[in-house]
Structures are given as C-alpha cells and as structure tokens.
Amino acid sequence: MTPRISKAVIPAAGLGTRFLPATKAMPKEMLPVVDKPAIQYVVEEAVGAGLTDVLMITGRNKNALENHFDRVGELEATLEAKGDTEKLAKVEYSTGLADMHYVRQGDPLGLGHAVLRAHMHVGRQAFAVLLGDDIIDPRDPLLERMIDVHESHNTSVIALLEVDPAQAHLYGVATIEPTDDPDVVKVVDLVEKPAPGTAPSNYAVIGRYVLRPEIFDILEHTAPGKGGEIQLTDALLELAQQPENGGVYGVVFRGRRYDTGDRLDYIKAIVQLAVDRDDLGPELRPWLKEFAARLD
C-alpha cells in the first residue's frame, strides 16, 4: 500500500505585483479574504486533508507569513486581560494549526524551482503542493480526493478545472484520456499557457498537486521554459511520459474555487465567501440585492 502522505509544500515567494501598492510592504498571501489572510485558508485546507507538516517557500519581505503562524505574546496577553476569549481563540488557532517550516527560494526562477527547493525537507516521499492563489471551498474537498487517487494508483495527481476555452491560454492545459472513474483522467500531454486559440483542451491545471518524489529528479534537469522560468508543467509532462514512475493522473474538480490572484476575482472571492457566512450573510445578502438593483 502507498504510504499516506503527510507533507505539504506551499510556494509563497511571488512579489504580488498585480496588487501594488498594497503589496509593496505586505506579502500578497497576507491580503485578507473576509477576516483571514489568504494563506491561512490554504494551510487550513492542507491540515484538513491530514497534512500537518507544512513547508512554505518564501522570499524577501515575507517575514509576516512566519509571524502570522507564530506566537504573539503581547497581543495574547492583552486579549486575555480584556477577557476577549473569542478573539484570543482565533489568534491562538493559527499558531497551533500545523508544524510550520520555512525556506527561501532565493532566485525567482519559477514554480518548478520553488518546488525543487523543498527536496531536502520532503526527502524521498510523496507530498502535496498547494498554491496560494486558489482557495478551495472546504465544503467541496479536493485535496482529500487527490490523495485517495494517488494512493490507489501510486501516481502523481494534478487538479483540473474545465474553463471557458477563451480563457485556456491563461493556464497550463492538459490533454487527457478518460478512466473508469468519472472525475479521474489520465494526463497524456501538458502545455503551459498556450497561445490563444491553440489550447488542446479546456482542462486547465489549477493550484493543487500530489507528487511522487521522482518529480525532484526531473526538476533537477528541467530547462527554463515559458517566461524563462523553470516550469512545473514541463516537469509534469516528462513525468506523464514515464509509466514506470506512475505517470500523471488528474482529478476534475467541479466544486467551488475562489481565485485570489487577480484583483477582480479577489473581490468576487471575498463576496462569495462572505455571503455564505452565518455571521455576515444574513445582512450582506439583502444589501447586495439592493446595491445590484441600484446599478441599473
């Protein structure tokens, strides 16, 4: 039986230039989505799937990420003295969420390079990669399903989403073959951000991966690709052509996903998550309806 994986890798070294000037002094991963930083949703997802050993790949000016998951003694003491147990519990929750580790990427050489920086920590075992721009609704578990497919097929697994063909050029795109499971496909080809109108399908790769350790061997010799960066997509294509190493399978996700990597989609994500909250939704939903009516 394939051993249950326990380690998650979260690349978080990007500069967040699409959100300037907000990200001039604050990591984009710390931008709030309702009342939690985006990165906490991702760590919570990993923990919910049983991955409590989390390695974050960071860069310069990312100290706020480490601080968020660390103790803040003065704040905790102040809240305790005030008797504000609700806020104190929220602060302490992020501190004890997972066994957090950090390593810097150094040179910004692409996602593939960031994943390779996890080699020493992960070792020769399978692991998950979660990108912070994609928040997966906990009511629609994706990572758990990917881990199940990895265990049953002893393969690397990527998350796929059917997108509007006109938007396919914004993603890595997979060519697939069906399997006996309606949500599981075999990946036979991958291309990173194809030119508009040339995508081989509308199955886009989104930011969740469960990878066998052979990916490190491939990344060691993967040449820079699209954008002059070491692309994880290129390494996955090589792995897909290695049946002796399990190939690559995909889980087609049809649940709720919130994109926080684009300014407009970030705003939509906040609204979508807030309307479903018991503490915010009852007041927010009627206000949204009134506001939308006024737009006409």
Automatic annotation (TrEMBL):
Database matches in InterPro entries: GalU_uridylyltTrfase_bac/arc, NTP_transferase_dom, Nucleotide-diphossugar_trans
CDD domains the record matches: UGPase_prokaryotic
UniProt enzyme class: transferase
Catalytic reaction(s) noted: alpha-D-glucose 1-phosphate + UTP + H(+) = UDP-alpha-D-glucose + diphosphate
UniProt domain Nucleotidyl transferase: residue ranges: 7-272
Listed Gene3D superfamilies: Spore Coat Polysaccharide Biosynthesis Protein SpsA, Chain A
Source domain of life: Bacteria
Keywords (A to Z) from UniProt: Nucleotidyltransferase, Transferase
Enzyme Commission number(s) from the entry: 2.7.7.9
Nucleus found in the keyword field: no
MF terms (GO), sorted A to Z: UTP:glucose-1-phosphate uridylyltransferase activity
Family label: Belongs to the UDPGP type 2 family.
NCBIfam families to which the protein is assigned, alphabetical: galU
PANTHER family hit by this protein: UTP--GLUCOSE-1-PHOSPHATE URIDYLYLTRANSFERASE
Name under which the protein is recorded: UTP--glucose-1-phosphate uridylyltransferase
Underlying gene: galU
